[in-house]
Amino acid sequence: MQQKRLQRRTPTGRAVIPEQNRSGYHGEQGLRTLRELVRAYLTISKDLTRVMNRVKAIYRSIPCGGQRVYHPRHRQEWLSKITHPSVRRRAEFYYRQLDVLWRKQARQELLAESKVQV
After folding, report:
1. Mean pLDDT of 67-85
2. Quick one: pLDDT at residue 30?
3. How buried is residue 26: exposed, middle or buried, by Cβ count under 10 Å (0-12/13-18/19+)?
4. DSSP per-residue letters across 42-93
5. Any residues with CB less than 8 A from the CB of 42 and at least 6 apart, and which?
C-alpha cells in the first residue's frame, strides 16, 4: 500500500512541491522585486492612514463618524461645512492626496509579482 504525501498549500490553493521550494540563491533579482513591492505597499498604506486621520482632524468639531467623509461623492457636502477658507484649502489638499493614494496600482503589482514568485 502506497502512502500519500501530505502537500502544503499556498494561500491561493496551489500545492507546494518541496523540490521547488528551496532556499538559497535566487538569481540576481530573486525576491528583490517582491520585497520592494511589499515595502511600497506598506508605505502607501501607512500614508493613506495618516491622510485619513488628518482629514478627520479637520472635522474634529463636526460629528463625522464612518467613511462618508472620505468618499468623493460626499466631498462637497463636507467641504461646505468648513467655514474658514484656509482650512477648506487644506482639506482639499488632503482629498487630492487621498485620490492619489487610493489608486490600486501598487496592490495589483504586488499581487501579480507574488503569483510569479509562488
Report:
1. 92
2. 65
3. exposed
4. HHHHHHHHHHHHHHHHHTTTS---SSTTT-GGGHHHHHTT--SHHHHHHHHH
5. none
pTM of the complete model: 0.66
Distance CA 59, CA 78 (A): 9
Query: Around Cβ 30, how many Cβ atoms within 10 Å?
Result: 12
The residue assigned the cell 500519500 is 4
As a whole number of angstroms, the distance between CA 96 and CA 93 comes to: 5
Q: What are the Cα distances from residue 24, in Å, to 10, 27, 31?
A: 20, 9, 11
| Cα separations in angstroms, 16 against 3, 10, 19, 82 | 18, 7, 9, 55
